[in-house]
Design brief:
Blueprint (H helix, E strand, L loop, with lengths): L7 H24 L6 H26 L1 H16 L3 H17 L3
Helix pairs in contact: 2-3, 3-4
Length: 103
């Protein structure tokens, strides 16, 4: 039986943790030196939406209409109810019904 906790795995985890920390700390260090102009503030305000779009759109394009319907349902529930748990539950249900309907 292979040893899953060999020396390589903990070292890889440690290196990844250090790189992740360095990237986060580097971002804070860099942004501390950027002047907060209205343009920079606007870019930072738009950043969360662009990250969501960059995450969601490939999923929708890869999975087609069921994913698009589910994402639309999630967005509608979040706009109307502002309840993340309910939005996820309805999104999963819409995706399941759409797949069951053959879409």
């Amino acid at each position: 039986m292979p040893d899953t906790l060999s020396v390589g795995a903990p070292v890889a985890i440690l290196v990844m943790a250090l790189v992740a920390y360095a990237l986060r700390a580097g971002g804070f260090w860099l942004m501390a030196r950027v002047p907060m102009t209205p343009r920079v503030r606007g870019m930072l305000a738009a950043l969360p939406g662009s990250i969501v779009a960059a995450t969601v759109l490939p999923i929708v394009f890869r999975n087609g209409p069921p994913a698009a319907l589910a994402m639309a349902a999630v967005a509608a529930v979040m706009i109307l109810a502002r309840n993340q748990f309910l939005a996820i539950a309805i999104g999963v249900a819409v995706a399941a019904v759409a797949r069951g309907a053959g879409l």
